[in-house]
Amino acid sequence: MKKHIENKTYHVEILPPKQDTEKLETDLENFSVKFNRVMESGYCACLTDNAMGNLAFQGTEMIEELGLEPRKDLVMIHLNTFHTKGDLDRILDSCRTLKIRQLLVISGDGSDRLPKLSPADVGATDTEAVTSVELLRYIGREYPGDFELGVAFNPYEPEEHEFAKMERKLAAGAVFIITQPVIERHEVVDRLLAKYPGIPVIVEAWMSKKIDLLSEAVGYEIKTATDPFDPIATLKILHKNYLGCGVYLSLLGFKTQYDLIKDTWQ
Question: Most buried in the list 50, 105, 115, 244, measured by CB within 10 Å?
């Protein structure tokens, strides 16, 4: 991950198609085009796992079925706790076969349609529910040395609670951190960087013009410097304020924004 930051490698979020899509062939083609474009650019493709609790195809499943070619160290798989034990191991085995080393391990968003790992599935005896911490421990124990494990950090949660969780995540094997989206310098992110100077941090940039969606996600109104919200201008601000961090691009518009991002990281 440190090499990504040194090489100014963007992390580009790509959502696999939902399983109930009514336009599967189109969605598969769009996924393939996006994935290949990210690979050709030398960026890192970040494939989500049932984003927002919506049942979707798995990232490794897409790569295998579509015959895509993941470049070395340029694919990151999101992995959450809403799986059966069998599916969890299949995903991890596929990642190992495809030589995908980077995983973002998160608790995830659940729904009635999704199964949930039990403590017994991951060998946890001191908890009633599986979180990213238990999942990190399981992967580290069952797949030692196979993966580079990252975790999320939410600067909008109560600080002490979030930093306490981060301590547990790092103790469980996390070696890099990706923040929730920020649109300017954030004092809690600054505190994170000061507290863990040796841990690579990736700052998430909100690339959708629909800033109200971010406000809904964090629970209060996000004030912006421009109206309407300008994601590219915000991206430049983040580069200026977080020179030592990587950047994760969420909800990036491939048709309207992709060619513009190359000029923002100088």
Answer: 105
Q: Which residue has the tokens 């200026």?
A: 240
Which pTM was predicted? 0.95
CATH class of 2-261: alpha beta
- Please write the tens of the pLDDT for every residue from 109-118: 888 889 999 9
Question: Taking the C-alpha atoms of 120, 121, 126 and 127 in order, what is their torsion angle to the nearest 10 degrees?
Answer: -100
CA distance 261 to 242: 16
pLDDT digits (tens, 9 = 90+) for 153-163: 999 999 999 99
HEC string of the chain? CHHHHHCCCCEEEECCCECCCCCHHHHHHHHHHHHHHHHHHCCEEEECCCHHHCCECCHHHHHHHHCCCCCCCCEEEEECCCCCHHHHHHHHHHHHHCCCCEEEECCCCCCCCCCCCCHHHHCCCCCCCCCHHHHHHHHHHHCCCCCEEEEEECCCCCHHHHHHHHHHHHHCCCCEEEEEEECCCCHHHHHHHHHCCCCCEEEEEECCCCHHHHHHHHCCCCCCCCCCCCHHHHHHHHHHHCCCCEEEEECCCCCCCHHHHCCCCC
pLDDT surpasses 80 at 139: yes
